[in-house]
Write a structure and sequence with these properties.
12 helices; mainly alpha; single chain; two-stranded antiparallel sheet; about 325 residues
Length: about 325
């Protein structure tokens, strides 16, 4: 005759020769849930590196502050007329070096141009140069470095020696030599120079990341199953090797903005009538004692912009680094 079952409890083995009492609902949950109490339900999906990074970024005040500053800069770059009503090229020598006035909160520079308007329009030039240069450097460097890291051999050796040559060229000196013969007033010669000397850094980062990722088991399994090189690169290697490139490119964006201002200050970058923070800083330097405001505002805008992109890159690096979790 079967033993009567207690309606209020169930017995579960402890795994050490003993037993413990469980409530009926807990016993039924143990039977239904794979892996026992605390096990993942079939509906739960494992979080990816990117979802974890986004969750950490949303809680990081550094990322939020830098992101708000960058969004404001992008808004100003796209629609400068939304916050200023004057032309940056409209100047009045009668107001040269005058301070803040009604409707002109930043005063006037040595040519009588409104400093506020020129600071606002200078953001468009700096952000455009920084974004375009970063995209060009990231694409060129990632492609060359990724292919070198994946295939290795002669291609890797040749690319490594080429990058060594470019690393030996001082950036500012290279800009003085290469851009001094350019007479164009557009931003494209400056962007091309930055891409020419900037891709080796991203190339080495991408090469090292691809070499690390291609040794993982899932890449070896895909190779054993007959996956083509293009499929392994696009499906398995690139999504897992791109994180370091994104971090370095984000930080480099601020560096390229500062480099454009430096070259424009030295007279080999952008040239008048282009509107640039570097041009305004260079023009205001001789009048620093009589009109310090003409130097303060474009310099402050440049410093805040570069700092925002560097802070953004640091926050992304911390979120994507698994060692910091």
């Amino acid at each position: 005759m079967p033993e009567p079952r207690e309606p209020e409890g169930a017995i579960a083995s402890t795994g050490m020769g003993g037993a413990m009492d469980l409530a009926t609902s807990e016993g039924e949950s143990l039977e239904r849930t794979p892996g026992g109490p605390g096990g993942a339900s079939p509906q739960d999906k494992p979080r990816s590196l990117w979802s974890d990074a986004w969750r950490d970024l949303r809680r990081n005040p550094v990322f939020l502050i830098a992101g708000l500053v960058i969004l404001f800069l992008v808004f100003v770059s796209l629609w400068p007329g939304a916050i200023t009503w004057m032309s940056p090229l409209k100047c009045d020598l009668a107001k040269a070096q005058q301070g803040s006035q009604s409707g002109h909160p930043f005063g006037f520079n040595g040519q009588g141009c409104d400093v506020y308007t020129r600071t606002v329009y200078g953001a468009r030039t700096s952000v455009t140069v920084g974004v375009c240069a970063t995209l060009g450097v990231a694409i060129l460097g990632s492609v060359l470095g990724g292919l070198a890291g994946f295939f290795g051999g002669t291609w890797d050796s040749v690319l490594s020696r080429i990058t060594d040559v470019f690393f030996a060229i001082p950036v500012v000196l290279g800009g003085l030599v290469l851009l001094s013969v350019v007479t164009s007033n557009s931003i494209w010669p400056v962007i091309g120079f930055m891409v020419l000397l900037g891709w080796p850094q991203i190339s080495r980062i991408a090469r090292g990341s691809v070499i690390t990722v291609k040794q993982n088991d899932y890449v070896q399994a895909a190779r054993a199953l007959g996956a083509t090189n293009s499929r392994m690169l696009l499906r398995h290697i690139t999504p897992n090797a791109v994180a370091p490139v994104i971090v370095v490119a984000t930080i480099a964006l601020g560096t390229y903005i500062a480099l454009e201002a430096t070259l424009s200050y030295l007279g080999v970058g952008l040239k008048p009538p282009s509107v640039s923070w570097g041009i305004d800083i260079s023009a205001a330097s001789p009048y620093i004692r009589n009109a310090p405001h003409a130097l303060l505002w474009p310099s402050g805008a440049l410093a805040i912009t570069v700092l925002a992109f560097i802070m953004l890159g640091d926050a992304i690096r911390d979120a994507l680094d698994p060692k910091l979790r």
